[in-house]
Automatic annotation (TrEMBL):
Organism phylogeny: Bacteria, Pseudomonadati, Pseudomonadota, Alphaproteobacteria, Hyphomicrobiales
Family affiliation: Belongs to the acyl-CoA dehydrogenase family.
Domain spans labelled Acyl-CoA dehydrogenase/oxidase N-terminal: 11-121
Organism in which the protein naturally occurs: Bradyrhizobium sediminis
Protein's name according to its UniProt entry: Acyl-CoA/acyl-ACP dehydrogenase
Short name of one Pfam family: Acyl-CoA_dh_N
InterPro entries, sorted: Acyl-CoA_Oxase/DH_mid-dom_sf, AcylCo_DH-like_C, AcylCo_DH/oxidase_C, AcylCoA_DH/ox_N, AcylCoA_DH/ox_N_sf, AcylCoA_DH/oxidase_NM_dom_sf
Length: 377
C-alpha cells in the first residue's frame, strides 16, 4: 500500500463558506421547522431549496462550463456539516451524488443536458440498493435490456432518498452481466411505481421504486468502465457526506445535551456539574474532533485527486460510532423525557442510527480496510 498523505487542507474560502452555511441553516432549520417538516408528507421545503440554488451551492462541484463554480467535493463538505448539525431535510446530498456520477461517467451530451438544470435547482437522486441489502454497488439484480435504441429496465430499488421530489433518478442495473447506470426522468416513472418506506430518521423521505417495464433511450445509459467509475464516485461522495453530516449531528447532539445539563437541577445543583456527565460530554467532544479530522482529511485527499478509499472508510467508521454514542448519551442524559417523542435528543439518535448503516456499517468498512491495510496471508 502507498503511504497515505496525512495533509489536511482547509482554505480561507472554505472557512468563509462554512460560516455562511452555519448561519444559513441555523436560521432556516430551527428545531421547530424540522418538526414541522417531519409532520408534512413531502418533508421538503421547495422555497428553501430555491434559496440554496440561488446561493450557488448545488453547482459548487460542477465545472464552470456547465454553470457551476468549478470547485471540489471538499467545498461541498463544509455545507453538509452544518446542514447535519441543524437536521435540515433537503435533497442536497442525493443531488450531489447524482452530479458526481455524471461527472465521473456521463457522456458530454448527458452532462450538457443535466448539469445546468441541476445548477438551476433541479433535483437528482440515485437508486442503488436492492432487497438483499448488499452494500456492494456492483452486485446487481436489476436489469437493462437494449432493444433497438431503447433500454427496457426491470427490478426494484429500495431506500431511494428524495425520489418523490427528484427530477432525475440514476438507477444502477446489470447490462449484459456488467454494471451500468440509467438516467430515468421523473415523468417516465409512474407515481404508482413509488412506495414510501418507513425509516428511522423521520427527517428523510425514502422510497421503493419499481422499474419493471420502464424504458429509457439508449443514450441515457452509462456503461462499461465509465459505469464503474460513476459507481466509485457515488461511493466516495456518499461516504464523505455521511461522515460530514454525522460530524454536524454530533455537534448538534452535544449542544442539545449541554444546554439541558446546564438547565436541569437535582439535589440543589445543576446536573451538568456532576463529574460523570462532564466526562461523557468531553468524550463526545473528542469524538466530534476525531470525526471532523477524518472528514477533512478525506476531503483534502479527494480535492487533491489522490486515492482516498482508506481515508473515506475510516471517516465513515469513526463518524458512525461517534454519532451513535453522542445520540445515545443525549437521550440517556435527558432521563425519562429523553425517551419521549417531544425530546429533541431522539431526533439526533434517529439520524445517527440511519447514518450508521448508510452505504455500509462499521463492520463492512473495517473488513475492507483490513484488506487494504494488512499484508495478505
Amino acid at each position: 500500500m502507498a503511504q497515505l498523505s496525512n495533509t489536511i487542507t482547509f482554505t480561507d474560502e472554505q472557512a468563509m463558506l462554512l460560516d455562511i452555511a452555519t448561519s444559513f441553516f441555523r436560521e432556516k432549520s430551527s428545531i421547530t421547522t424540522v418538526r414541522r417538516q417531519i409532520a408534512s408528507e413531502s418533508g421538503f421545503d421547495r422555497e428553501l431549496w430555491g434559496e440554496i440554488a440561488e446561493l450557488g451551492w448545488l453547482g459548487i462541484a460542477v465545472p464552470e462550463r456547465f454553470g457551476g463554480s468549478g470547485l471540489s467535493l471538499a467545498d461541498v463538505t463544509v455545507i453538509i456539516e452544518p446542514m447535519g448539525r441543524h437536521l435540515a431535510g433537503t435533497p442536497l446530498i442525493s443531488t450531489q451524488l447524482f452530479i458526481q456520477a455524471l461527472l465521473a461517467g456521463g457522456s458530454e451530451q448527458q452532462q450538457r443536458e443535466m448539469l445546468p438544470k441541476i445548477c438551476n435547482g433541479a433535483v437528482g437522486t440515485v437508486a442503488l440498493f436492492e432487497g438483499d441489502g448488499d452494500w456492494n454497488l456492483e452486485h446487481l439484480e436489476s436489469q437493462a435490456v437494449i432493444a433497438v435504441d431503447a433500454a427496457r429496465l426491470s427490478g426494484a430499488k429500495t431506500l431511494v432518498c428524495d425520489a418523490a421530489v427528484a427530477d432525475f433518478v440514476l438507477v444502477s442495473v446489470a447490462l449484459d452481466g456488467a454494471p451500468a447506470l440509467a438516467i430515468v426522468k421523473a415523468a417516465d416513472l409512474p407515481r404508482e411505481r413509488r412506495t414510501r418506506e418507513t425509516v428511522i430518521d423521520e427527517t428523510r423521505r425514502a422510497w421503493r421504486l419499481e422499474f419493471d417495464g420502464v424504458s429509457v433511450p439508449a443514450s441515457s445509459l452509462i456503461t462499461g468502465d465509465k459505469a464503474r467509475a460513476a459507481l466509485r464516485a457515488i461511493s466516495d461522495a456518499a461516504l464523505l457526506f455521511a461522515a460530514a453530516e454525522a460530524a454536524g449531528g454530533i455537534a448538534g447532539a452535544l449542544e442539545t445535551t449541554v444546554e439541558y445539563l446546564n438547565t436541569r437541577s437535582a439535589f440543589g445543583r445543576k446536573i451538568g456539574s456532576y463529574q460523570s456527565l462532564k466526562h461523557t460530554c468531553a468524550e463526545i467532544l473528542v469524538g466530534l474532533e476525531r470525526t471532523r479530522s477524518h472528514v477533512y482529511h478525506a476531503a483534502s485527499l479527494l480535492a487533491a485527486g489522490e486515492d482516498a478509499e482508506v481515508a473515506l472508510r475510516m471517516a465513515k467508521v469513526e463518524a458512525g460510532d461517534s454519532f451513535v454514542y453522542a445520540g445515545d448519551r443525549a437521550v440517556q442524559f435527558h432521563g425519562g423525557f429523553g425517551f419521549t417523542y417531544d425530546c429533541d435528543a431522539q431526533l439526533y439518535l434517529r439520524r445517527a442510527l440511519w447514518l450508521q448503516y448508510a452505504f455500509g456499517d462499521a463492520t463492512h468498512h473495517r473488513r475492507r480496510l483490513a484488506e487494504l491495510l494488512l499484508p495478505a496471508g
